[in-house]
Design brief:
1306 residues; alpha+beta; 13-stranded mixed β-sheet; 14 helices; 23% helix
């Protein structure tokens, strides 16, 4: 008996994080079989047996990997491993060590098969080879569970207790014959119900386990055992789940009382649950008629509500001390594991991060104060802050007196306001705000509330930012309404700063170094501009500046005792609903402006309209900032000693003509020196030697000198060129299923580095993204629309200076993206959202695991629910990270992003299983057929700026905001391209193109002064007018009738009919003839389904759900009798219109095809190298009989004289392929279990069946199927391929059948 501790999932994580990090080995092997195992490497690395004890792990380094890398590549060795399990088991040979996946092997020569699971995973750079049985036990309970294995005619064994969340494989010697019993602890008896490990394939999926108590006074322990098997039916998981789970998704601690609804005032179970947590009830039989009553702080006990009645309520009302009502929602459902999960939540949480007291009120007709608060909130907030039961450890404030405690908020169940759910707030001494909507996720707005007016005092204006976001994790049903200060001032100067509103009477309290404070306007009658000054010394206020828009600029503060001035840089950053005003010291190397006096006299400067002068001595320069930065027309007044005042603009880069001032002629130039604009004033000569003509000639001469290129040799110290013909990227989810294939062709990278600069040129000639889902209406999701004069789809150019060390200085940055066609469908979008969520959740989990040692919340769900933590929490904490101001700044002499043009289409897919927790899924389900969009032309303007000086985050924010605004601006084109409107945008676009060509083509030909060319131009213009106008008319008509037909089909409520109709609609007619043929085919489908549904719908319903199903089927049949033929008529019109439309473009460029077919996955789900043959075989299964055989696994296919013999894991087919592979039809099929043998003759292959079967209902049953071919070589090849495959498939089928029959007989 091995005394080692069992290796659970937590131990596996520890192995990955500790053992593998000690030294990176290529392979690790881990034994979880319950017995000792010997292993050896096969082939040239075979080095004898190595003992691997139970629960032991060892590193493996094959001999060929110890050689030089070049020698390893020349060997081309594939490592394999062999095992021998201790006991009367057969050895396992030549298992792959590199193919990630799980393999199930039979290792028993005895009558009862024993399965061994061999699992290859990839962890932190190493392959982990794990051996365990095919049965794993997982504990999803809150208590440990003990398991006991009973072996017939052998010794029984008690397995180690499984803690909450742990898993453990059953020892391999027990996994095929044992009987499992369970109990939570030694205080309970072993369960009477046994799980037979030998019959898991036929066992029920859910079993209720009852463990009696050793003491009569204690209640029994009830829980569910849920059985889940893999797709292959060879791997099993037994999981433990409580019978009843109560989940608290409210912001406070929840008290509850469970009782029997048939016994008055009974209490079977009671307790309390912290926020985001749940409790398991294991002492009550789930069949007991139950009711529950709950309570949260500041509210009374609710009335009891039924839980497992026929129609349990979904709402619960709670009243506070003032009889105001809070509506709590109840999610009461039975999960597939059998347990009843009861979740309590409210629609909204109000989170106050303003640092002030906030009251909430319902909007609309019921504008009463929200339940759970009073007009004087001091007592309520103080009790919240002091209640350890309510506060979650590790909240975003970091203290126990947090003011960001969420407040539950609800609206009446019935409302008539078109704006949806409304609310209003009251802050400090203000009145109530106007009603605002809180229903739309993503809403960000500013709420402005004026202070209550008092005689003789100014009226303050409180500006509060509000953001609506969705809760995360288990809180996804709740919307988080976060209130934060609209403005937060962050002082990153080395000195304290005073701040005030321009024109206000008194300054507010100073902000110390590194502090941040919320700011509200103190006088709503004054300009909404901010002024600052240094707190220490005799400093004047700066000019007023606006803080509403993103940007950064410099402000000046003057000392009243002298000419000293202090420049501070102000950076405006928007994060959610909060605008941060960040104060930093001005960069001495790169100020906004620099004034250089190159004359021989003292120069004075000041901003026009200001009274303060600055002095610059001869030959000196001065960093400059405006005294009043908010003025629109900012000019600089310049005066030399004894001269007149001249006014210049610092914001326009130019070289002025020589300026005559008194007795002097000045050369004045404003140029850029990095991000700094420099005004340079030089002395030319005395005025008496100059006239206007001479000054103009001197100006022109200087401009030519500046334009003349300076030929300086550039010494390149490093040059790198990368040229690739193409690269492909496959995106695969955890199903596994290939979602997307990205193909990039013509990659060219050129990098040069010299002493002064670095230059990068990157271009891509072609980019195509394929939708790899079989049922997609758009196989090619994204592809470029290339014109003859453009051969590059994507190009990036950047030239960076190496001289500046304090900033990233770019001479040029340019990005160009050509026009593209983007086609999305609902199924692909939902799968990609799920895939991205899976990746982000995994990365988040890894990050939390890495940060776990630093401490954190003991309630991670509660922390995750407060999604908008960026705005901070009350007081001085407003969520801005001080280090963010230290990021590297960017300067561009020129920054360009070309316009982006996208032709956007979207298709809604019916009969899609939608995830109700996904916001996108819920929106698409409500849009239905109205969500279809056809070729919406979206145009996003270019981004062009000169001399921007900004941080990386600000640049990203500006670009993001630019494209967000662009999409909003173009959204009307999406609506105008909707199918239900007939796509009027496309109609006008195509018609306009035809009319334009009708006049433009003859006009262009007329320029050649040739009557013949004019005639050709007239013909081309007429052809274009007819083609485009015909396309536009019939396209709009087909779109409109298609939506009508699709909507009418939904009303039949026949999922099979809807699915079959969609499969037919995916095949588009190429011309009018095909359109008419497809139309009559669809009409026939509607007539057959409508008339035949009267009979078979009730029969099918009776077979599925008895009498109730028969009644539902009869209703569907009656509805379909009228609707389905009408849909068929509409489809006839639609398909005919599509055929006529496509006739106009029949000779144009054909439809684009995928770069390659979707990847094939075998039943084991292992990722193998891509096989075009396997991909083609699996794709054909989706093309036959409307996807009837799509869920079988491809094995082989062979071509014989225009036909294809195809073999899956269950069926043998003969398919007829025509139209170059476009059309596939079935000739015959037969199940593998019916195949008795094959016979090869020179002219055909005879498939012999074990009983007569008919090909169709019109054919007579026969016991043979024939595969004809005139080429004997092809027949012989197919025959020799089918024989071994059929033998293997039949043996596996017969073994599974015998196993199931023996189980049923015993």
């Amino acid at each position: 008996d091995d005394e080692r501790a069992p290796v659970t999932t937590s131990d596996m994580d520890e192995l990955a994080s500790k053992r593998i990090q000690q030294k990176l080995y290529p392979y690790f092997i881990l034994n979880n079989t319950g017995v000792n195992v010997w292993y050896w490497l096969s082939g040239p690395d075979e080095n004898g047996l190595t003992l691997l004890e139970n629960n032991e792990d060892q590193p493996i380094v094959p001999e060929f990997m110890k050689s030089h890398r070049k020698a390893r590549m020349e060997q081309d060795t594939v490592p394999v491993i062999c095992f021998q399990v201790e006991g009367e088991f057969t050895p396992v040979r030549n298992l792959p060590m590199d193919k990630v996946g799980t393999y199930v092997i039979n290792i028993s020569p005895l009558e009862h098969p024993v399965s061994l699971a061999y699992e290859v995973t990839f962890r932190m750079g190493s392959k982990v080879l794990r051996l365990h049985s095919n049965v794993t036990v997982v504990n999803h309970m809150d208590q440990p569970i003990e398991s006991f294995v009973i072996m017939p005619e052998r010794d029984s064994r008690e397995l180690p207790a499984l803690g909450p969340g742990e898993s453990l494989p059953v020892p391999v010697t027990f996994a095929s014959l044992g009987l499992l019993r369970f109990r939570p602890s030694k205080e309970y008896r072993w369960s009477d119900v046994e799980v037979n490990l030998a019959r898991l394939g036929s066992a029920p999926s859910t079993t209720l386990i009852v463990c009696g108590t050793m003491r009569s006074a204690k209640e029994p322990f009830l829980f569910y055992v849920h059985l889940k098997s893999s797709q292959s039916g060879k791997l099993f998981e037994l999981s433990f789940h409580p019978s009843i789970v109560i989940e608290n998704l409210l912001p406070y601690t929840l008290e509850y009382r469970l009782g029997n609804r048939r016994v008055r005032n009974s209490c079977l179970y009671s307790g309390h649950i912290h926020r985001g947590k749940h409790t398991s009830v294991t002492s009550i039989d789930p069949k007991t008629p139950m009711r529950i009553s709950v309570k949260i702080p500041f509210f009374n006990w609710s009335d009891p509500v039924d839980l497992n009645s026929k129609n349990p309520p979904e709402l619960l009302k709670m009243t506070d001390m003032n009889k105001r009502t809070l509506i709590v929602h109840i999610c009461n459902a039975v999960t597939p594991e059998g347990m009843r999960r009861i979740s309590f939540y409210t629609q909204y949480w109000m989170v106050n991060k303003t640092g002030s007291k906030v009251l909430y009120r319902r909007g609309g007709l019921d504008n009463s104060l929200a339940a759970g608060q009073t007009m004087d909130t001091d007592e309520c907030q103080q009790s919240l802050a002091n209640s350890s039961d309510i506060l979650v450890t590790g909240a975003s404030s970091g203290t126990s007196e947090s003011s960001d405690q969420p407040f539950p908020f609800s609206v009446p169940a019935f409302r008539i306001d078109p704006r949806g759910d409304l609310a209003s707030i009251k802050v400090h001494k203000s009145g109530w705000s106007d009603n605002f909507s809180i229903a739309t996720q993503g809403t960000v707005l500013c709420i402005e509330i004026d202070e209550e007016a008092q005689e003789g005092k100014s009226v303050a204006s409180y500006q509060i930012g509000m953001k609506v976001s969705a809760g995360t994790g288990p809180f996804w049903r709740t919307k988080i309404i976060t209130f934060s200060p609209r403005f937060v001032i962050v002082n990153q100067l080395t000195l304290a700063v005073n701040y005030t509103q321009k024109g206000a009477l008194a300054p507010l309290a100073p902000i110390g170094r590194g502090e941040q404070k919320a700011y509200h306007w103190s006088d709503n009658s004054k300009p909404y501009q901010l002024c600052i000054r240094l707190s220490e010394g005799t400093w004047e206020w700066s000019g007023g500046f606006d803080i509403h828009d993103i940007g950064n600029f410099c402000v000046k503060m003057r000392n009243r005792n002298g000419d000293q001035s202090y420049l501070a840089r102000v950076r405006i950053k928007v994060d959610g609903a909060t605008t941060f005003v960040i104060l930093n010291a001005e960069d001495q190397e790169f100020p906004d402006y620099r004034i250089t006096n190159m004359t021989r006299k003292l120069m004075r400067i000041r901003q026009k309209g200001c009274k303060f002068w600055d002095r610059i001595s001869a030959g000196c320069s001065l960093s400059y900032a405006w005294d009043e930065p908010s003025l629109s027309n900012r000019l600089l007044a310049v005066q030399l000693t004894g001269g007149d005042i001249i006014e210049l603009s610092l914001d326009s880069l130019k070289h002025y003509e020589p300026i005559k001032v008194s007795s002097q002629v000045l050369d004045v130039e404003v140029y850029a020196e990095g991000p700094t604009k420099v005004l340079c004033v030089r002395h030319l000569a005395k005025a008496k030697h100059w006239n206007k003509r001479r000054m103009r000639r001197a100006h022109m001469k200087r401009e030519k000198e500046q334009e003349a290129p300076q030929q300086q040799p550039v010494i390149v110290s490093l040059q790198l060129q990368l040229i690739m013909s193409g690269i492909g990227v496959s995106v695969i989810d955890d199903t596994p299923e290939e979602l997307m294939y990205l193909c990039i062709e013509g990659i060219h990278l050129d990098y040069k580095k010299s002493a002064d600069e670095q230059a990068l040129e990157f271009s891509v000639n072609w980019l195509q993204v394929d939708n790899q889902l079989y049922l997609t209406p758009f196989p090619v999701m994204l592809f470029p629309i290339m014109h003859e004069d453009r051969r590059t789809f994507f190009s990036l150019s950047a030239v960076k200076s190496s001289k500046s060390k304090s900033i990233d200085y770019f001479h040029y940055f340019g990005l160009a993206i050509r026009e593209m066609d983007l086609k999305l469908d609902e199924l692909f979008l939902l799968k990609m959202i799920k895939f991205v969520s899976f990746i982000t959740d995994h990365l988040k989990m890894m990050a939390e695991r890495d940060d776990g040692s630093e401490g954190g919340s003991s309630h991670p769900e509660g922390r995750a629910s407060l999604t908008d933590s960026s705005a901070g929490v009350g007081g001085s904490q407003h969520g801005y990270t001080a280090g963010a101001g230290d990021e590297m700044w960017l300067y561009f002499e020129q920054f360009d992003i070309s316009p982006i043009k996208v032709i956007f289409s979207f298709a809604n897919v019916s009969a899609v299983e939608r995830d109700t927790s996904s916001t996108v899924s819920r929106v698409l389900s409500r849009g239905g057929v109205l969500a279809n969009v056809d070729c919406a032309p979206l145009y996003l303007n270019e981004v062009h700026t000169e001399h921007p000086f900004t941080s990386r985050s600000d640049l990203f924010d500006r670009i993001s905001q630019h494209y967000v605004n662009g999409v909003i601006r173009e959204f009307h084109k999406v609506l105008g391209s909707a199918d239900f409107l007939g796509s009027p945008i496309n109609f006008m676009r195509t018609l306009g193109t035809g009319v334009y060509d009708f006049f433009n083509e003859p006009a262009l030909a007329w320029k050649e002064r040739s009557a013949k060319q004019f005639g050709y131009g007239l013909v081309r213009g007429t052809q274009s007018l007819v083609k485009h106008s015909g396309f536009g008319v019939f396209n709009s008509f087909a779109k409109f009738t298609g939506i009508v037909g699709k909507g009418a089909a939904q009303l039949t409520f026949d999922r099979e009919y809807i699915k079959e109709r969609e499969m037919l609609n995916r095949e588009k007619p190429h011309h009018a003839g095909e359109g008419i043929a497809f139309g009559f085919r669809d009409l026939g489908l509607g007539l057959f389904q409508g008339i035949g549904g009267i009979v078979y719908e009730p029969v099918q319903g009776m077979m599925e759900d008895g009498l109730v199903g028969a009644i539902k089927g009869a209703a569907r049949g009656v509805a379909g009798f009228g609707l389905k033929p009408a849909v068929g008529v509409v489809d006839l019109v639609t398909r005919t219109a599509e055929g006529i439309r496509n006739t106009t473009t029949f000779w144009d460029e054909k439809d684009r095809h995928r770069t390659r077919k979707p990847r094939y996955f075998a039943p084991d789900g292992v990722l193998y190298p891509f096989s075009a043959r396997h991909a083609e075989g699996q794709e054909l299964l989706w093309a036959v009989e409307k996807g009837r055989w799509a869920h079988e696994w491809y094995q082989y296919h062979g071509e014989v004289d225009g036909a294809v013999v195809r073999l899956t894991n269950n069926t043998l087919f003969l398919l007829e392929v025509s139209g170059g592979g476009e059309s596939v039809s079935e000739v015959w099929h037969c199940g593998i279990r019916h195949v008795r043998g094959l016979q090869l003759t020179p002219a055909h292959i005879t498939v012999q069946l074990n009983r007569p079967l008919s090909i169709t209902a019109l054919h007579r049953p026969t016991d043979t199927r024939l595969v004809h071919s005139a080429q004997a070589a092809h027949l012989r090849e197919v025959y020799h391929q089918l024989i071994p495959l059929l033998r293997v498939l039949r043996s596996s089928s017969s073994s599974s059948s015998s196993a199931s029959s023996s189980s049923s007989s015993s």
